[in-house]
Amino acid sequence: FARNRINDADGRELSHQHRAPSLKCHSVSRLSATIQKGLNCVFPFLGKGLVVLHGPKWFQHRRLLTPAFHNDILKSYVSLMADSSKVMLDKWEKRITKDKSLDIFEDVCLMTLDSLLKCTFSYHSNCQNRSTTLPTAIHDLTAMIQQRIKTFLYHNDLIYWFSPHGRRFRNACRIIHCNTEKMIKERKERLKDKRELENIQKKRRLDILDILLCAKDENGEGLPDEDISAETDTLMFGGHDTTGTGISWLLYCLALHPEHQQRCREEIKEILGDRETIQWNDLSNMPYITMCIKESLRLYPPVPQMYRQLNQPVTFFDGRTLPEGSLVSLHVYALHRNPTVWKDPEVFDPLRFSQDNLSDQHSFAFLPFSAGPRNCIAQQFAMTEMKVSLALTLLRFELSPDLNNPPNEVVQLLLRSTTGIHLHLKKLS
User: Fold this and answer.
1) Residue 273 lies in a domain
2) Residue 52 belongs to some domain of the structure
3) Annotated binding residues for heme, as ranges?
4) Residue 244 pLDDT grade (very low, low, confident, very high; cuts 50, 70, 90)
5) Do 307 and 329 touch, CB atoms closer than 8 A?
6) Which residues are annotated as a binding site?
7) Is there a domain that residue 197 lies in?
8) Does the chain have fewer CB atoms within 10 Å around its N or its C terminus?
9) 341 contacts 19 by C-beta, under 8 angstroms
10) What is the CATH number of the domain that holds 201?
């Protein structure tokens, strides 16, 4: 993918001027087949949401969903994110011991799921402290999708749906879809009452379901229930595991680099003073924390590969071409560690993202949230949650790595560690 021009699904041109290192070459047909199998694995759960839509319907959904992630809405989510983070930190405080590290990954992902359910449905699941049906089903689906992609026989729909694994997958989908449909139906009934609608529109904290149900296009048309369900399921699938993965790798990076960890902690203390609660206005006053988050996302992008389907033929710099309709994999992990794009790419250096250095950075050198019109619609939601959870964690604990149990990176749908992410936590007085 050197000096190539790849059009995304809506015709916007993405330019890359550097060759990524150590990328394996695949034939177009083999790559397309692999990507398509991966997409087919998530269709039964996601339905036709933003991830898989294209053309006019994608544009309509994107435009209607964008207000759900406006700053005025995100403001009201900060307290919910803080509450979920504090539950996780309370659990860690009870579990830490002097000589034993904690595997933080599952706890962090449960925390982001808890937070997302509150913001999406105003649903307080308590999933961090007890196992409940809906959160458990959501949490299990990611693992089951990845297992299907890895298992060659499961690429055959007939074999998969009759296997025990396929039956568990269908059952998890059924639980999630039934809960989603029930909550949408109940909320729509409430909205039929004009006074209730006025109260929802006036209340200080709208959840994403309120916004989806009240959204109208220029013709006064809203989204049908099927589309609202698909978008809600897409947000639940793509919005908690990705953020949980990003936060886990962020904490790992700061555990490895105590000097950056301490500087972040000092920045938080200076902002809060005697306060213990993070507020919306605090988030814009965290320049060093923001740089550390971005540097962590560079080294450990939660979504290490992205895919685009070409809507017209593309010719590469060496004369080779890809036909219209080809599915293309963009290897973000390789791009972010490319020595021709980044100086000393393996070094954790937050100052890469200082204002002085941003002018030298290519606009497509940093792609943790993709780019162009199909970039991640919830990237500000994710950045907000990463700042809130990091700030509260560093105020409570000092982090250090477990050198005897380092993470083993593996590129899957998300950037995972096969050995977990183990950290030593020391309670701060």
Assistant:
1) yes
2) no
3) 376
4) very high
5) yes
6) 376
7) yes
8) C
9) no
10) 1.10.630.10
